[in-house]
Amino acid sequence: MSDPLYRKEILRLAADAHGAGQLDRADMAGAAYNPTCGDKIGVELALDADRRIVAMAHETKACVLTQASASILGERLKGASRANVEKLANAVAAMLIKNEPAPAPPFDPYTVFRGAVTHRNRHRCVLLPIEAVLDAFDKEPNQLP
Fold this sequence. Notes:
Blueprint: H1 8-16, E1 28-34, E2 39-47, E3 53-61, H2 64-76, H3 82-98, H4 123-137
Antiparallel strand pairs: 1-2, 2-3
C-alpha cells in the first residue's frame, strides 16, 4: 500500500491496540467524537496522588488513524500530567498543520502520521484520542460516565 495515510507502521500500531479495553479502577473518564466521520473514543484514566497518569484504557470505534493514535497513548502516556497532554496536543497539531517536527520522546511515534499533513480532514482523527484524555482531565475526579 503506497498511501502515506496507511503506512505499515500505522496499521501495526492500530493492530497492537495498546491500552484497549477498560481499567479495573478508573479515577476519570473522557470521550471525544468526530461528527464528520463518526469516529468516537472513550478513555479511562487511573491517576496517582499528583494527578499523573498511572494507566490509561480506551474503547475506540474509529478509523485506523484514530486507533493508532490511541495505541500510542495507551503505550506511552504513563507518568503524564494534564500539562504534558496539552503540550502533546499542541505538538501533534503543529506537526500536522504547520509541518513542524514530531513531538519529542516518549511521543515521537507520532511521526508516523506525517502522511496526514496534506490531508486536513484527517488531522482530527489523529488528535481525537488526545482530546478524549483532555476531556477526562477537565472533569471532576471520579466523574465517570
